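Chapter summary example.
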Amino acid sequence: ISQELYRNDLFISVLWNPASDKTEQLSSFFQRLTKAKKTQSEPDAEAIRKIEELSQDLIQGLESYEARLLSIYEHDGVLFSEQSEFLHQLVGGRRERIPLTFGTIASTIYSDRVIF
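The structure predicted for these 116 residues follows.
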């Protein structure tokens, strides 16, 4: 082939918020955050179950496009995060392997100094 080939990757983010009132949302968020910090646990098991269910429904609906969830993968003995790679591509403008870290995701995805 004499020319470069390009591909289009489409990413869909699923956001779910069970609360409809803005003050209820804010209050609920801080309650879950405080509880999670105190117990070192997941903020809300029911919410996690619901978002997983919604994600599976979406993937099944997009079956003909071979949709899948971003995940963690291994390359040369190192674990990498597709979620971090996606966010890095949004921030940095280019695709790059991002290793899985145990710290905050912000420090791993920001590798270039972007000035607007």
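To summarize the output: The longest strand covers residues 72-75.
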